[in-house]
Amino acid sequence: MGEYEHRLHELEGEANYFPPPPRHPGGRERLHIQKSSVCSRAYFVVVMAFFHLYIINIIALLLYVHYNTGSGEQDIPLENSASAPRPMPAEHRIPSSASLSPELSFQLPRLEGIRVGHVQRVSLVLDRTHNMRTLSLKPLLFEIPGFLSVEESSVVMQLAQLKGLTHSSLLTAPDSQEEHLTQDQLFSLLDLNQDGLLQREEILSLSHSTDGSWLSSYNLRKIHTGLETNPSGVLSLQEFKRVSGGVLQYSTAGQGLDGHAKVRQRSTHTRLYLGEGTHHLLKSIRNRVTRLTRLPSSLVDLSEPMEVVRYEQGGYSHAHHDSGPTNHDSSCAHTHLVANNSASKQVACRYLTALLHLNSADGGGETSFPVADNRTYEEEVLGDLSQQYCDKGNLKVKPVAGTALLWYNHLSDGNGWVGELDEFSLHGDCLVTRGFKWTGSVWVNIDPEQQRQERYQRLVSWHPDGQSKKPEHGDLHQDL
Ligand SMILES: *[C@@H]1O[C@H](CO)[C@@H](O)[C@H](O)[C@H]1NC(C)=O
Ligand SMILES: *[C@@H]1O[C@H](CO)[C@@H](O)[C@H](O)[C@H]1NC(C)=O
């Protein structure tokens, strides 16, 4: 008790002593300094705390920017290492498909058209932005001038010529073509990145290129099984011959896609693979399409190779849809192997089309959307879809080198997935009256049946040899 009182007294004394009423100016000044130094210390601590937070924020922001542009700059190191050993595509696929979280795969981003004539800025490459103009809402159609530079467009045309263009009319008889292919030729056709090995992606991508009718699904399944059981996970030419020997039955009945190759007249075409191991510009085109569409990169990466078409003078294409309706007796060409059903018809399931105009034709050659934004759609009214629709067409786009058109061939199903075919996406290429017209078509293949698309993506990214990668896929498997 006494002790307590004593302590209290002491404290009182201190308290009395500490803020004493100022007696003379000198004391006041001294006390003022003391007080303000106490104040400024607290102030200093607060300021320092905020300063540290600020610095941490800046560092976090810098790291964020670094890693974000890091992924965007992927093109640049790859550009320099065009002659360097090719990375295994499989290794690159794993992160992208593993990062395809269920939420992502359930919700496909879809661009907004707002209204016809609306212009939005899009970021496709590091050093500039592009304008994207809405051309129509039915179908949802955009125009992106300068998607490729004029020089880049001519590089694509040169690459197509190097690869070799074949007459589109040949495609109407895929059966006869197949019989003339030797195993070596077939291997070379399958080996999209020309690295002398067949990767899983290459075998599976064949099944969804419209002109890839060299193999029946029976043969394809055999070869795929051979690849799965091969410890290295890839097939060399020798292994391919061993696996495919005796199974190449050339039974093409019911194979191939209806009508697609027949729509073009006086044209030649080729396919350019956009994945690993190809020219950096082609990989960059794939990246730009990914950025433009905002779709998960795994979907774009797994899509069919770009088709480059060269129309001669007098060349045109009939009005057609790039994608097809899927129902019970048809399945998507790209997921056909996974579907494992008896559906006799295969249709190309192309959620969207990015059509690149590679040159400015001297005369004619407009890309026409005859029913764009029409109130109703009746094919009969259009009459002969081969030619007349060009004069009647609601919307015609003159080819300008480097300009891209992007449109959705399917509506949304309302739950963020691919819905029905958008009939208004009907389009064709008008008669080239003078010179040539070059186009490049990039399609993103998505199965309207979501589970099938997911199974397909798991199949493509699954590696029997990669024991270390198994856990990731175990997780993915659980997630999906
Ligand atoms: C495909 O389906 C058949 C029966 O419909 C089944 O026996 C077979 O195992 C299936 N194959 C695969 C790879 O799922
Ligand atoms: C376009 O719309 C008009 C008016 O609604 C209609 O008369 C015409 O048949 C439509 N054209 C087509 C090709 O459906």
Throw out a few tags for this protein.
alpha+beta; 480 residues; 19% strand; 40% helix; 9-stranded antiparallel sheet; globular
Task: Describe it.
This protein is α+β, with helices and mostly antiparallel strands and 480 residues long. The protein has a domain at 147-358 and 427-446 and 454-464. It has 18 helices and 18 strands. The N and C termini lie far apart (72 Å). Residues 12-23, 25-29, 70-104, 170-179, 208-213, 249-261 and 465-480 have low confidence and may be disordered. One 2-acetamido-2-deoxy-beta-D-glucopyranose (NAG) binds at residues 371, 374-378, 381-382. It comes from Sinocyclocheilus anshuiensis.
Summary?
It holds the Pfam family 2OG-FeII_Oxy_3. The chain has helices at residues 2-17, 25-72, 75-80, 89-98, 102-106, 150-163, 174-179, 183-190, 200-206, 217-229, 237-244, 280-293, 297-301, 336-339, 379-382, 389-392, 450-461, 470-479, and strands at 119-125, 128-136, 141-144, 166-167, 264-272, 306-317, 330-332, 345-347, 350-357, 363-364, 367-369, 395-397, 404-408, 410-412, 418-421, 428-429, 432-434, 437-445.
Largest sheet: 9 strands, antiparallel
Widest sheet: strand ordering: 1-2-3-13-9-18-6-5-4
Number of strands: 18
Global Rg: 31 Å
How much of the sequence lies in strands comes to: 15-25%
Overall mean pLDDT score? 75
Cα-to-Cα separation, first versus last residue? 72 Å
Bound molecules: 2-acetamido-2-deoxy-beta-D-glucopyranose
Inertia-based shape:
globular
Unreliable runs: 12-23, 25-29, 70-104, 170-179, 208-213, 249-261, 465-480
Which structural category fits the helices and strands?
Answer: alpha+beta
What's the number of helices?
18
Question: Residue share in helices?
Answer: 40-55%
